[in-house]
C-alpha cells in the first residue's frame, strides 16, 4: 500500500433512498449517526446509482463501470473474471481488502467446473476481497444463522426466518435486536478490525433496510404508520405501458414474508414505510457504533470513510415497490465521504455524481492508479473544494427488466424479447429522459414540481428538447464504451499505455 497508510471504511447500505438522509423523507426519519457523519464530511446530494438491482449495482460500484460495459445486468448474470475492481486494485498495490457482508457477484462459469459451489448462487464474492464475515440472504446457513442457533433460536430456512412473529406484518422479528443481522455484522466487524494493523481496508455491507421488511423490537414500532408522509400518487396511474407490469412484478405483498394477500392501500403503504424507517434507524444506530469505535481507538482521523447505498426503493410511491422502475427513488442514493486529510467539513456538493465514481475516488484517496476500464471519475477534487471545469452535467442509469430463464411480466405482457427488456435514463437538471429498447414510447419528465407522472415527450413544443437529450444520450454511450484497452497500443516498441 502507499505510504499514507490510511484505513478505509467503505459502507454500503442496501436500498436506502437519498431523501431519507436529505430530502422529503428526512424530516420524518431519525438518522443521527449518518447526519453527524455528513456534518463532518462532504455530502454529494445529486448522486445516482447507474443501475439496479443489488448485484448489478454493486458490480458497477466496485468496478467503476456502467452496466452496459460490465454486462452483469441482472442478479445472477456472471461478471467476466478479469474485470478490474476496487478490491483487485487495492490488492495489487499491496493491500488486503476485507469483506464484512456480501457483494452479490455471480462468477464467470467459463473458468469453473460445473459442480463448483460458486456456480449455485448469485450471492458470491467479488474478486479481490478476503471474506471475513459471510452474510447471505437466500442460500444455506451462514454465520449469522448459526449465531442465532447458538443463542437458542429455532432458525427456519429462508424465507421464513424473515417472517414476523404474530398476525401482522409489523409484529416483531423472531430474533431480539441485539441478535439481528445488523447488530451481528457490526459486532463481528469491530471484533475483527480491533486485531488489524493500520492500513486496513474494510468493505461493510448492511442488508437493511432491504426487504423483507421485518424488524426486531423496538424498531418494528419505533415509527407510527399514522405519522408517515404520504406516498406520491399519479393522476393517471397507467400513463405509461411500463407501469402496470411494474406493479404486478413488485406489489406491496412482495415486501414481507407470510402475507401474500396484503392489499395495496394507503394504510398498508404507511405500515410498510414505518417498518422501512425502523430498519434504517437500526442501521444508523450501528453505523454510529462503528464510528464511535474509530474515535475511541484513535483511528477516526486516520480513516477514509465512504458511506453510500447500492440503489433506492420506490416505497409505495405511485403504488410501486422495490427498485425496478425509471423513477428517481430507484437510483437516487446518498454518498458521504470523509477524507481525514481534507479540511472540507459539512460541505454539500450538488454537482451530478454517479456510483461509478466511488471506486476511482477510493483509489485516488489511497494513492493507487485507477484502471482504464473504470468509467467513473475520482471525486478527490471535490473533497478539497475544487470542481473540475469539465465535470459532467448529466447522470445516466440503466435497468434490465428481463429474465433469460423465467420471462418477466414485462416480457410476457408487452411481448418484449429478452434483449429489448431494458431502459436507460438521462437526467439533466430537472429533466428526465427515458429511452426503452423494446419500442415502448420514450418518456420526458420535468420533475421540478416533485412529481414524476407525466410524459411530455409527445408534445410538439418539446421536440427540440427531446432531440437534444436523445443526442446527449447517444454521445454518452459513444464516449463510455468499454475502456479496458482504450489507452493501450501494441507497437514495434512493445506495449505502450497512455
Task: Using the coordinates shown, work out and report the CATH topology.
Answer: Alkaline Phosphatase, subunit A
Question: What is the element string, with H for helices and E for strands?
Answer: EHEEEHHHEEHHEHHEHEEEHHEHEEEHEE
Please tell me what the overall shape is. Answer: globular
Major sheet description: 8 strands, mixed
Average the pLDDT over all residues and give the rounded result: 96
What is the CATH class?
Alpha Beta
Uncertain spans, ≥5 residues at pLDDT below 50? none
Helix fraction by DSSP (H/I, runs of at least 4)? 25-40%
Helix count from the secondary structure assignment: 13
Hey, roughly how much beta strand do the residues contain?
15-25%
Any idea how many domains?
A: 1
Number of strands: 17
Question: How far from one another are the termini?
Answer: 23 Å
- CATH-level-4 superfamily name: Alkaline Phosphatase, subunit A
Backbone CA Rg? 22 Å
Q: Look at the helices and sheets and give the structural class.
A: alpha/beta
Assigned CATH architecture = 3-Layer(aba) Sandwich
The main sheet orders its strands as 6-5-7-1-8-9-2-10
Question: What does this 3D model show about the protein?
Answer:
- With 498 residues, this protein is of the alpha/beta class.
- The strands form four sheets. The chain has an eight-stranded mixed beta sheet with strand order 6-5-7-1-8-9-2-10, with helices on both faces.
- It has helices spanning 32-39, 54-63, 67-70, 86-92, 143-150, 181-193, 243-249, 266-296, 328-331, 358-365, 380-383, 409-413, 463-479, and strands spanning 7-13, 42-44, 47-48, 51-52, 97-101, 130-134, 201-206, 303-309, 335-338, 347-349, 353-354, 395-400, 422-428, 431-436, 443-446, 488-491, 494-497.
- The chain has a single domain, classed as 3-Layer(aba) Sandwich (Alkaline Phosphatase, subunit A), CATH 3.40.720.
Amino acid at each position: 500500500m502507499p505510504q499514507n497508510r490510511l484505513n478505509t471504511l467503505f459502507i454500503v447500505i442496501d436500498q436506502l433512498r437519498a431523501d431519507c438522509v436529505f430530502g422529503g423523507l428526512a424530516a420524518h426519519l431519525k438518522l443521527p449517526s449518518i447526519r453527524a457523519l455528513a456534518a463532518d464530511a462532504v455530502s454529494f446530494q445529486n448522486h445516482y446509482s447507474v443501475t439496479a438491482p443489488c448485484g448489478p449495482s454493486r458490480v458497477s460500484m466496485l468496478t467503476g463501470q456502467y452496466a452496459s460495459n460490465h454486462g452483469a445486468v441482472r442478479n445472477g448474470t456472471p461478471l467476466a473474471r478479469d474485470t478490474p475492481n476496487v478490491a483487485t486494485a487495492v490488492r495489487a498495490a499491496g493491500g488486503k481488502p476485507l469483506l464484512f457482508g456480501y457483494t452479490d457477484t455471480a462468477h464467470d462459469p467459463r473458468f469453473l467446473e460445473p459442480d463448483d459451489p460458486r456456480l449455485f448462487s448469485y450471492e458470491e464474492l467479488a474478486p479481490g476481497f478476503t471474506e471475513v464475515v459471510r452474510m447471505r440472504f437466500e442460500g444455506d446457513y451462514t454465520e449469522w444463522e448459526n449465531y442465532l442457533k447458538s443463542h437458542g433460536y429455532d432458525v427456519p430456512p429462508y424465507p421464513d426466518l424473515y417472517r414476523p412473529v404474530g398476525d401482522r406484518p409489523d409484529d416483531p422479528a423472531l430474533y431480539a435486536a441485539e441478535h439481528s443481522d445488523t447488530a451481528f455484522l457490526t459486532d463481528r466487524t469491530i471484533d475483527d478490525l480491533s486485531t488489524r494493523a493500520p492500513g486496513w481496508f474494510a468493505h461493510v455491507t448492511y442488508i437493511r433496510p432491504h426487504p423483507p421488511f421485518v424488524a426486531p423490537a423496538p424498531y418494528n414500532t419505533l415509527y407510527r404508520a399514522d405519522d408517515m408522509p404520504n406516498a406520491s400518487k399519479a393522476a393517471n396511474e397507467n400513463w405509461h405501458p411500463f407501469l402496470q407490469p411494474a406493479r404486478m412484478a413488485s406489489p406491496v405483498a412482495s415486501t414481507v414474508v407470510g402475507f401474500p394477500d396484503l392489499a395495496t392501500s394507503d394504510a398498508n403503504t404507511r405500515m410498510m414505510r414505518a417498518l422501512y424507517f425502523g430498519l434504517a434507524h437500526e442501521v444508523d444506530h450501528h453505523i454510529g457504533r462503528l464510528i464511535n469505535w474509530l474515535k475511541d481507538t484513535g483511528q477516526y482521523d486516520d480513516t477514509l470513510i465512504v458511506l453510500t447505498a447500492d440503489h433506492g426503493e420506490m416505497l409505495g410511491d405511485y403504488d410501486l415497490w422495490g427498485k425496478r422502475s425509471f423513477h428517481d427513488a430507484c437510483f437516487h442514493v446518498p454518498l458521504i465521504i470523509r477524507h481525514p486529510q481534507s479540511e472540507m467539513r459539512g460541505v454539500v456538493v450538488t454537482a451530478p455524481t454517479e456510483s461509478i465514481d466511488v471506486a476511482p475516488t477510493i483509489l485516488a484517496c489511497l494513492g493507487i492508479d485507477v484502471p482504464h476500464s473504470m468509467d467513473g471519475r475520482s471525486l478527490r477534487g471535490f473533497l478539497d473544494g475544487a470542481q473540475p471545469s469539465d465535470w459532467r452535467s448529466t447522470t445516466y442509469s440503466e435497468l434490465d427488466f428481463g429474465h433469460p430463464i423465467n420471462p418477466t411480466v414485462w416480457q410476457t405482457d408487452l411481448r418484449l424479447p429478452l434483449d429489448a427488456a431494458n431502459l436507460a435514463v438521462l437526467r439533466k437538471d430537472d429533466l428526465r429522459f427515458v429511452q426503452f429498447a423494446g419500442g415502448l414510447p420514450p418518456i420526458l419528465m420535468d420533475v421540478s414540481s416533485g412529481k414524476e407522472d407525466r410524459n411530455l415527450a409527445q408534445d410538439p413544443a418539446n421536440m427540440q428538447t427531446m432531440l437534444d437529450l436523445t443526442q446527449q444520450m447517444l454521445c454518452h454511450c459513444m464516449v463510455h464504451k468499454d475502456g479496458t484497452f482504450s489507452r493501450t497500443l501494441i507497437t514495434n516498441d512493445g506495449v505502450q499505455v497512455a
